[in-house]
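Lab manual, section 2.4: Encoding a predicted structure.

Procedure: take the sequence of the chain (496 residues), apply the prediction step described in section 2.3, and record the output as structure tokens. A sample record is shown.
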Amino acid sequence: MKFLTRIEKSKEFWFLLVTTVIFFLLRLPSLFEPYWYGDEGIYEVIGFALRHGRLLYSDIWDNKPPVLYLIYALFSGDQMAAKFLSLLAGIFATWAIFFLSKKLFQQFLPSAITTSVFAFLFAIPLIEGNIANAENFMLLPNILAGLLVWKAVKQNHKESSIFNLPSSILYLLLAGLLLGISFLTKVVAMFDLSAFAVFIFILALDSFSLQHVFTSIKRVIPLVVGFLIPIFICAGFFIIHHTFSIFIHATLFSNVGYVNYGNQFLIPQGFLILKTLLVGIVVLFFLLWRKRVTKETLFIFLWIAFSLYAALFSGRPYTHYALVLLPGVTLCIGLLVTHQRLRILYGTILFFLVIFVLRSFTFYAHPLGYYENFLGYVLDGKSEVAYQSFFDPIVPRDYALAQFINLSNKKNAGVLVWGNSGQIYKLTNTLPAGRFIVAYHMTMTPKNIQEAKMTFLQHPPHFIIALPNQDTIPFPLSGYQERIIIDSALVYEHVL
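Recorded output:
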């Protein structure tokens, strides 16, 4: 009873409860979205394939680390379930940012403001909070890692009863473990690791003598060790299954060209080198001024600098890349509220940072229309076709193609989708015969297209769906005839 009475009088409890309810309501429409988002379509197919015995990368392919696909595999690629888990991860991330801001600012008001802004921006579709993408799942472990790092530097000499390790070492090991899992969700988590490692190093550095530098490096080691543990476990799995080289090629080497393309400036990776130099300048500034800034300022601005680097790493303006900036930027708002003496300086930095981000990324243009579309569909009799078309005009076409395949009375008929709507496989509960799901996977390299052609010849699908605005199908179509055209998409059927 005393516990319940204490909760009833706790403004933190009621604040988090109200914030959680609002977050849930703002995210609720995402659970009822049609299958429309291309990246989600790939994750859904891979999740479905993993549940049907295929091995990641060697039997079904994409170029991201494995954790996101394992999340989708938990639900056999079901979109609503994956989005519900994303919703829960968002709620827990909101709680985590509240507790982290409480530790940083020691006051309710800046913590409440920080959490409110974070929750609102993460819940709405403005920066694709509604999509169950890698960044949506990364924020929770990243924020929890930040909280553990902060606790580690604040409790440096207290002993833990677990393994007789000092609290600071245990916290850093756990923080590294979380960041390692985040890295296996998307590799840009390495920059969160970098931010926290630099923070610990600078905080521990008394002088630039060699002895003090080595001492500061030693303080970072538990964080790095924790980070490497899940990575080694993952590598061990693929080594045991004799697919380690395929795993490395898919997640690392296949992304080199992607990053290089968006960072061309005078020389290959020119922009990336420039961005690295700028982050280095920020680190150098804090190294030299480390005794004149507060721990909170150092922690937040290092996190912002490395998060901005992560968001800009590939040189692409994709909306969800900006999600990694949310923790640092919203904590900066709390810093602005707390530090009145430096409010103008922090406000100016935050203003120009927001302007830069707005100019660097493409943001979702119709957040209000998103909710109007949902309410119109649920409450006002809006047609399903109109509801689907709001997300993308091609969505009704994909559903119509899937319905045609499902009603074809061809049990277990193989399907090849020549295009980039991988979600058609999930809508028809089929899988591609080979590793590649969408056309851009097949045409990424000459080796890929040759592999896709060999798979096609060895396992000819019963149906070929040729989506419009694609290159000519590079496979021989002898033995196939045109069956139906649905909104400019041509369906071939095998007749021999």
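Check your result against the sample. The mean pLDDT is 93.
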